[in-house]
Amino acid sequence: MTQPTLLRRVPDHGPSLLDTALTLAAHGIPPLPLRAGKAPFGNCPTCARNACGGRPNMRNPGPCRCPAPCHGWAAATTDTRVLTSPPWASVWRRAAAVAYHPGGADLTVVDLDDAAAVAWARGTLPVTRTVPTTRGEHWIYQGAMRSVNAVRPGVDIKSTMSYARWLGPGTGTLTALPDIVRALAVKNPATAPPAAVTVAALAGGGECRHRTPAYLERGIAMAEQRITGASRAIHATVYRTFLAVLSVHGGCGCLTEAHIARLFAAAQAKGESARHCTDAWTNARTRLGL
Asked: Contact at 8 Å (CB) between 10 and 29?
């Protein structure tokens, strides 16, 4: 889904849950069925106990090739042939709601679970499309990121490797995923870079003198993708990526702690420890004389 108007065309309810799912799929939003209690269906008989090769993870993020829902969020698909196949049809008849995979549609949902969380978002986050929920709101942004629960009281982030319940098209204009939301994913002390990691030594006026802010943002996003997409030699990939970022922006003062935190978070999502991240960053700076 690339245009806000597409969401407006999708009904919040219809003759059947499958009809809603098919409409979502037609607009590039991968749907999946939910059973009572808002949980996805378990493994299909073909994939009982992960006989198909194991549940999805960072190295194997997609669904298996069986024709029925079997892996929670990874069961989401825009393939209408799969959605209407006999195994799926029986599941849709037992389903209680429709969900979708935000990351699969290049979306991020900031799930605000109560009035206090909504009040915080209204005073902190950029305005975007909002969808009312039972107790709060979903704020939807264009762009994908990693999913993290409990980034602050009453706030979850649902994007890649996650699902959100479809509650209607919502209101407002869909806006680009802002850095302030990305930064929420590294607020947890377990994933944030150590306090000793700062950018004081890189300060050079606080603005990149030879590149535009948009270029810097693209560079950080590409670096995150390079790390996330690595399937082997993770240590070396992280180091080379840090080196590449620092070689372009390390001496002009445009890098901030938020940028570094994003790179560290991507590396730690691939299994790197905070210490390894710090060492790789320090070694890259040392090699470049920063």
From this structure: yes
Nearest-Å Rg of the Cα atoms of the chain is 21
Measure CA 105 to chain center.
10
Residue 277 Cα distances to 80, 212, 287, angstroms = 42, 27, 15
φ, ψ for residue 191, nearest 5 deg: -115, -10
Cβ atoms of 277 and 245 within 8 Å: the answer is no
How is residue 88 written in tokens? 């799926």
User: Which residue pairs from 215-218 have beta carbons closer than 8 angstroms and sit at least 24 positions apart in sequence?
Assistant: 216/249, 216/254, 216/255, 216/259, 217/179
Sign of CA dihedral 116, 122, 124, 130: positive
The model's pLDDT over 9-49, given as tens digits with 9 standing for 90+, comes to 555 444 589 999 999 999 999 999 998 888 887 666 666 55
The residues of the chain scoring below 70 in pLDDT are: 1-15, 42-71, 187-213, 253
Cα separation of 23 and 1, whole Å?
Answer: 12
Cβ atoms of 140 and 181 closer than 8 Å: no
pTM reported for the whole predicted model = 0.59
Q: CB of 46 within 8 A of CB of 24? A: no
Which residues, at least 6 apart from 92, have a Cβ–Cβ distance to it below 8 Å? Answer: 16, 17, 18, 21, 33, 83
